[in-house]
Design goal:
Blueprint (H helix, E strand, L loop, with lengths): L1 E3 L4 E3 L14 E2 L12 H7 L3
Antiparallel strand pairs: 1-2, 1-3
The structure holds zinc ion.
């Protein structure tokens, strides 16, 4: 499963980019799913970016 950090959605592994926004997808880490993975907006709010 891959994840768009901008849309907060997950997609099939065979996709490289998000069909919605065109951003590069990243693989979800162990224990992450689309509901708890941090999006770029959330990381900015937390001061991580
Ligand atoms: Zn996207």
């Amino acid at each position: 499963m891959k994840f768009c950090e901008y849309c907060g959605k997950s997609f099939d592994d065979d996709r490289e980019t998000c069909p919605d926004c065109g951003a590069k997808l990243r693989s979800l880490q162990n224990g992450e799913d689309e509901d708890n993975a941090l999006t770029v907006i959330e990381m900015m709010m937390l001061g991580l970016l």
